[in-house]
């Protein structure tokens, strides 16, 4: 019985340690813009989403399948930009773990200035999510407004990786 208790304590400790390992950097628009520009040598897939957005949550498993397929390609990177509020960061972390999100996740804490930064990402973006923007060689090559199917995501990636 004592061994069983020790094993239980060890498992709980390990779970707590794993829970602390998920890190979600918090950025303002300017920091995110710099972060995107530093990966100029890759096809960068940047998806804007939120845990409270049903279409966003629906498309994320497709994004993870595609990310897992291409993650070892040195010319590919996926970033998931959460537009959840900073006070909901713990909910975002739990969501990442529960949904097994394997792509890099960033929390964009800049909602008050969204009317400034949204048109800087894309002039035709009306602020709705999900939105996915593809960058190659530091420049935007494709903008997808709304939910994206796995097939469309893969087709866009394949076209741009050529």
Automatic annotation (TrEMBL):
<dbReference type="InterPro" id="IPR050553">
    <property type="entry name" value="Thioredoxin_ResA/DsbE_sf"/>
</dbReference>
<feature type="domain" description="Thioredoxin">
    <location>
        <begin position="5"/>
        <end position="162"/>
    </location>
</feature>
<dbReference type="Pfam" id="PF00578">
    <property type="entry name" value="AhpC-TSA"/>
</dbReference>
<dbReference type="InterPro" id="IPR036249">
    <property type="entry name" value="Thioredoxin-like_sf"/>
</dbReference>
<dbReference type="GO" id="GO:0016209">
    <property type="term" value="F:antioxidant activity"/>
</dbReference>
<feature type="signal peptide">
    <location>
        <begin position="1"/>
        <end position="18"/>
    </location>
</feature>
<dbReference type="GO" id="GO:0016491">
    <property type="term" value="F:oxidoreductase activity"/>
</dbReference>
<dbReference type="InterPro" id="IPR017937">
    <property type="entry name" value="Thioredoxin_CS"/>
</dbReference>
<dbReference type="InterPro" id="IPR013766">
    <property type="entry name" value="Thioredoxin_domain"/>
</dbReference>
<keyword id="KW-0732">Signal</keyword>
<protein>
    <submittedName>
        <fullName>Thioredoxin</fullName>
    </submittedName>
</protein>
<keyword id="KW-0676">Redox-active center</keyword>
<dbReference type="InterPro" id="IPR000866">
    <property type="entry name" value="AhpC/TSA"/>
</dbReference>
């Amino acid at each position: 019985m004592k061994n069983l208790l020790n094993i239980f304590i060890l498992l709980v400790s390990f779970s707590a340690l794993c829970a602390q390992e998920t890190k979600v950097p918090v950025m303002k628009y300017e920091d995110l813009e710099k972060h995107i520009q530093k990966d100029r040598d890759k096809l960068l897939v940047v998806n804007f989403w939120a845990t409270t957005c049903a279409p966003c949550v629906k498309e994320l498993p497709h994004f993870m399948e595609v990310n897992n397929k291409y993650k070892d390609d040195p010319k590919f990177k996926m970033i998931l930009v959460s537009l959840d509020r900073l006070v909901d960061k713990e909910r975002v972390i739990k969501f990442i773990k529960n949904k097994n999100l394997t792509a890099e996740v960033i929390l964009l804490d800049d909602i008050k200035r969204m009317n400034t930064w949204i048109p800087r990402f894309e002039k035709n973006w009306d602020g709705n999510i999900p939105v996915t923007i593809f960058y190659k060689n530091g420049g935007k090559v494709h903008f997808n407004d709304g939910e994206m199917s796995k097939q469309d995501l893969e087709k866009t990636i394949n076209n741009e990786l050529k």
